[in-house]
Amino acid sequence: MDTSAIIFYAISAFTLAMGLMAVTSSKIFRSAIWLLLSLVGIAALYFWMQVEFIAAIQIIVYVGGIVVLIIFSIFLTQQAGTKMPKPSLKRMIASALAALFGLFFSFNLINHYGFSNTGSPHFSVSVNDVGTQMLSTTEHGYILPFEVVSMLLLSAMVGCIVIAIKPPEEQPKKDKAELENEHIDIPETVQEYVDATISEPLITTEV
Amino acid sequence: MSTVPLTHILFVSTALFFTGMYGLFTRRNMITILMSVELILNSVNINFVAFNKYLYPQKMEGIFFTIFIITIAAAEAAVAIAIVINLYRTHKSIDVDDATEMKW
């Protein structure tokens, strides 16, 4: 067991411990922070596997993007300090049993499959190669998935705006009323009086 | 580097996957369910990179799949959070047990 292996096991233990805390913590904000640390641990695992480009993407997209988005939505939707109700004991035991069964089943499967253990020492991914193959139109190029995924991102962005936008609060009706008011010939003093008396509750309707 | 066999990396990613699975089963809050889904997607990414590194070191397909999965996970998280915020606006709650209009 050399230094590299020790580093690998340390990173793995850290990642798994943080992931376990993220799914069991009863305070939602702490849960998000544990998730963030777990994702940093996974990025460290990528660094250990010498795929620095993926590690950088992991940190930029997950740690810098998704977790920040999650924390924002936590602040938008509930009080951060409140505790979530604990799941019932029956459900906890059943879930733990299901997860443990799946875990040992998969462990057994992996153990007996017999992968070749020859990790090649010269596995290096340069950003240059990744970019060239990503945008090449030859046989092993990824230009088509690249375009498809860019369309997916665009449509997801538009969809997010459409879903999360605040519904207009009866704005057209108010405009129409104003237009009608303009058509009726009322002396200016009366018009001002009407405008002053129509206060907020008449216009805004509770949705 | 070669002292750690491939199976140990697969063990780590499997454990992470079932940690996320446990969270998916026990949590009732939509944001925490989303967190569990992120853990599951990340464990799959680890698998892709590990297979690429150990079994096909002269190719890069695993790297590309990881990049695309990360992209799609970002889109998925954004849409999910938009839905959560909209649900909170109409129901004042993001508990999955409270959103039962479409339950048949």
Q: Shape of chain A, please?
A: extended
Q: Which of globular, elongated, flat, extended, rod-shaped describes the shape of chain B? A: elongated
The CATH homology group name of the largest domain in chain A: NADH-ubiquinone/plastoquinone oxidoreductase chain 6, subunit NuoJ
Q: Low-confidence parts of chain B, pLDDT < 50 over ≥5 residues?
A: none
Helix content of chain A: over 70%
- Tell me the radius of gyration of chain B: 17 Å
Task: State the major sheet of chain B.
Answer: none
* CATH level 3 topology of chain B: Helix Hairpins
Per DSSP, the total helix count of chain B is: 3
What is the typical, i.e. mean, pLDDT of chain B? 89
Which fold does the CATH topology of the largest domain in chain A refer to? Four Helix Bundle (Hemerythrin (Met), subunit A)
How far the N terminus sits from the C terminus of chain B, by CA atoms, comes to 54 Å
The number of domains of chain B = 1
Structural class of chain B: mainly alpha
The number of E-state strands of chain A comes to 0
The largest inter-chain interface, given as chain pair and residues per side, is: A-B, 85 and 69 residues
CATH class of chain B: Mainly Alpha
Question: Can you characterise this structure?
Answer:
- The complex is a heterodimer of chains A (207) and B (104).
- Chain A has helices at 3-24, 28-48, 52-77, 89-113, 127-134, 143-164, 171-183, 188-197, 200-203.
- Chain A has 207 residues and is mostly helical.
- Mean pLDDT of chain A is 82; it is low at 203-207.
- Chain B is built from 3 helices and no strands.
- The mean pLDDT of chain B is 89.
- The chains are: A mainly alpha (207), B mainly alpha (104).
- The interface between A and B is large, with 85 and 69 residues.
